[in-house]
Amino acid sequence: MNREQAAAFIAAIAQHNPTPETELLYTDPFSLLVAVVMSAQTTDAAVNKVTPALFAAAPTPAAMAALGAEGVGQHIRRIGLWQAKAKNVAALSQKLVDEHGGEVPQDRAALEALPGVGRKTANVVLNVVFGQATMAVDTHIFRLGNRTGLAPGRTTRAVEDGLVKRCPPALLRDAHHWLILHGRYICKARRPECWRCQAAALCNYKDKVAAP
Fold first, then answer.
1. Active site residues
2. Are both 161 and 119 inside the same structural domain?
3. pTM here?
4. What's the rounded Cα separation, in Å, for the pair 32 and 160?
5. How many domains does the chain have?
6. Could you state, in chain order, the average pLDDT of each consecutive group of 10 residues for the chain (212 residues)?
7. Quick one: 56 exposed, middle or buried, by C-beta within 10 A (0-12, 13-18, 19+)?
C-alpha cells in the first residue's frame, strides 16, 4: 500500500474504537513494564490473571527486587516461560533501583538496557505511559502488516519502519493499539474474519474469508 491507502486502512479500523487502550492491567509505568515483559509469547489475558497478586505483594521496584526471582516465580507459574520472566523481572527491578532511583526511564536506550526488555517492550511503555508515537510490532501486527500489504517486511523492524512511514503522524500513537486489536480479534492467524473487517475493501489479501 502507499501512504494514502495505508492512512485510509488505519482510519477505517479506527472508527469503531476511538480511544483504544492496552488490554494489560497496570496502574503505573512500573506495573506496565512488568506486565509487558511477562506478555512475551503469552496472552494478555493470561498475564492479567497473575499480575494482580504479584503487584499486591510487590508494588514497587524495590519490593519486586526484594522478592527475587524465586518470589516472583511463585506468583507467575501459570504463564509461559515463567522461570526466565521471573529472573528478568527481579533483575530489571533491581536495576531500576540501582540506576534510576526506582523510576522507569523515559529513554529508549535506558529501557532496552533493562533485563528482558527489547524494542517491542520499550515501544509499548513509551507509547502507553509516556505518550510517544511509537509502533510496537507483536505477532499480530507483523502478520497484519504482511497479509494486508499495509507494511510488508521480513522482520519486525522492517514492518515497524513501514508502518511508521505510512501512518499519518496524528494517528500513529493510537495506531499501535488499533492494529494489535484488529489482528487479535479480526485479522486472526488461522482464519481471518474478513467479513467483519471495516477495511476489507482496502486490503490486498487475496484469500479473503467469507462469512460462515
1. 120, 138
2. no
3. 0.90
4. 21
5. 2
6. 91 88 94 96 93 97 97 95 96 98 96 96 96 93 95 96 93 92 93 94 92 86
7. exposed
Residue 198: how many other CB atoms lie within 10 Å: 15
Give the structural domain span for 36.
29-128
- 209 is a domain residue: no
Contact 147, 207 (CB under 8 A): no
Domain boundary among 82, 101, 128: 128
In sequence order, what DSSP letters do the residues of 167-188 get, joined into one string?
A: S-HHHHHHHHHHHHHHHHHTS-
Task: State CA 192 to chain mean position distance.
Answer: 20
Give the cell for residue 2: 502507499
Helices (H) and strands (E) in the chain, counts: 10, 0
Burial 97-132 (b: 16+ CB within 10 A, else e): beeeeeebbeebebbeebebbebbbbbbbbbbbeee
Residues 200 and 210: beta-carbon distance below 8 Å: no
**pLDDT value at position 1?**
85
Question: Which of 88, 103, 128 is where one domain is finished?
Answer: 128
Same domain, 180 and 119: no
Amino acid at 110: A
Assess if residue 190 is contained within a domain. Answer: yes
Do 86 and 162 share a structural domain?
no
How many residues comprise the chain?
Answer: 212
